[in-house]
Amino acid sequence: MRIEQVSDAEYEISGLIVERLHERRFCVFDLEATGPDATRDHITQIGAVRMGGNGGPEPRTFATLVRPPIPIPEPIERLTGIRNEDAAHAPLFPEAYRSFRVYAADRVLVTQAGYEFNGPLLRRECGLHGLDPPEQLLLDTKVLFAYAFPEIDEIPSTDFLIRFFGIEAGDLPRHDALGDALLIGRILSRLLDAYREKGIADIRITEPLRVKKMRLEPLV
């Protein structure tokens, strides 16, 4: 798989091939962090839910706080509800990561903005601690949407996908890793339904597919 940065607003992905998509088992996950920069911020929470190829979530979920090596800024505390005093008693990243790896097992990993933030952040944390990053395939719901709906010129943000698919989201906490993982799971389920309706059984992105990057609002 190859990702080329086109501009501050877009990137292109190519070389992504996933056969028998609907036969796969998935682990949908999300991360919270000390900030929005995957090159310098640190993970504060991991949440995940396992799903089958039919798009249905499994009962047992995964959630853990992670103790970061730097303080959580006050705006991020307000946004995520994760306070420094809570994180101070949480496991360090290596312990939390090992538990997540056991939960995810060999399933395909799925997340939102995975090629822009969650994937790079997770790989960086692994590198800082001398740990191997996940070996299994990582899929990004933004890319899955862009592949199925190339005619739509909107940023496939979480809020946009909620509106587009008419997903119920009011019962889940936002900016909470498990709450957002469950929400991404609902998005994945609707994407899999759309793929079935369109007769898409395999993903074959051989020519560059352009994807709009997430746009972050400033925190105050």
Note the total helix count.
Answer: 7
Low-pLDDT segments: none
Q: Give the SSE string.
A: EEEEEEHHHEHEHHHEE
First-residue to last-residue Cα separation:
37 Å
Q: What is the SS-derived class?
A: alpha+beta
How does CATH name the architecture?
2-Layer Sandwich
Radius of gyration, in Å, reads: 17 Å
Overall pLDDT confidence = 95
Shape: globular
Task: Give the domain tally.
Answer: 1
Strand order of the largest sheet: 6-5-4-7-8
Identify the CATH homologous superfamily.
Ribonuclease H-like superfamily/Ribonuclease H
Compute the number of strand runs: 10
Fraction of helical residues? 25-40%
CATH domain class: Alpha Beta
Q: Tell me about the biggest sheet?
A: 5 strands, mixed
What is the CATH third-level topology name?
Nucleotidyltransferase, domain 5
What share of the residues does DSSP label as strand, in percent? 15-25%
Molecular structure report:
Pfam families: RNase_T. This is DNA polymerase III, epsilon chain. InterPro entries: Ribonucl_H, RNaseH-like_sf, RNaseH_sf. One of its GO terms (molecular function) is DNA-directed DNA polymerase activity. The structure is a single chain. By secondary structure, the protein is an alpha+beta fold. The protein has one domain: Nucleotidyltransferase, domain 5, CATH 3.30.420. It is 34% helix and 24% strand. The protein has 7 helices and 10 strands. Helix 4 (114-128) links the parallel strand 7 (108-111) and strand 8 (138-140). Helix 5 runs parallel beside helix 7 (177-197). The longest helix is centred in the last third of the chain and has 21 residues, at 177-197. The termini are far apart. The mean pLDDT is 95.
